[in-house]
Amino acid sequence: MPLKRIFSVLFLVLLCLGVLQANGEETPYTIIGPEELKGLVDSRADPFVVIDARNPEEYQEVHIPGAINVPQKKFDKYKKLLPTDKNTLLIFYCNGVKCGKSKKAAKLAAEEGYSQIKVFAQGMPVWEEMNYPIKAGADYEKKIETTKVSPGELQAMIAAGVDDFTVVDVRDPAEYDAGHIPGAVNIPVATFASRSGQLDKKKKIIVYCNSGNRSYLGYRKLQKLSYKKIYQTLFADWQTAGMVVVSGTAL
Q1: DSSP readout, 191-223?
Q2: Domain 151-240 bears CATH identifier 3.40.50.1980
Q3: Domain 32-136 sits in CATH 3.40.250.10
Q4: Which end of the chain is more exposed for a tag (fewer CB within 10 A), N or C?
């Protein structure tokens, strides 16, 4: 194999492992997946600290058992909570792949001299989605009001042809294939957090299911993933209004 190609392959491997950024800059941390982190939490074989880099309100609502809260935006104030041994493994997390707090906090920890740092990039939403143990606060099950979009409003948005929103069908693929709102993408609610990287945070995200239960869960997951422009509609209302329904394979 030519030397140039060998270096190209090595670069891609390191990029996937989180050792390099896309611009070629070295990072002071590596990426850890949910299964590996769960194994560490269960075994407690080696000394390590799991660190929630989100704000205190998010931490109080729900966090990984045993994690300490060192908010990235107030790192200097909270860094005294970090272990004195700079060789201790630190594992940072926040609200998913599009949340930058864990990586920023990891870099700040490296600047403090910590040498073993990992980032659980998929974060709290995927941890919850995989039904791993959680430490929940009093407001964890608190019901929220979703922002609704009527069939008429959604139809007008689709007809306008403006690419500033994404319609997401959170039902199972078979239901989506049988009939869905034109232009909708299919991300079943059971895998919503793990596949959230497909959704552009700059766009409005409109979730729907048949009657509202699954889209409510999708809505809540988007909130926890720090999406700001979230809306809900119902497929049953869309059908009742006589709007166009299309069928086809899930994207």
Answers
A1: GTTTTGGGS-TTSEEEEEESSSHHHHHHHHHHH
A2: no
A3: yes
A4: N
**C-alpha closest to that of 100 among 113, 119, 78, 127:** 119
CA–CA distance, 97 with 93 (Å, rounded to integer): 10
Token pair recorded at residue 182:
């034109």
CA-closest candidate to residue 204, choices 246, 145, 163: 163
**Tokens describing residue 130:** 């995989």
Report the pLDDT value the prediction gives residue 24, as an integer from 0 to 100. Answer: 52
Read off the pLDDT of residues 34-79 as tens digits, 9 standing for 90 and up: 999 999 999 877 789 999 999 999 999 999 999 999 999 999 999 9
Dihedral-angle region of residue 125 (phi above 0 means left; psi in -120 to 50 means alpha; beta otherwise): alpha
pTM: 0.77
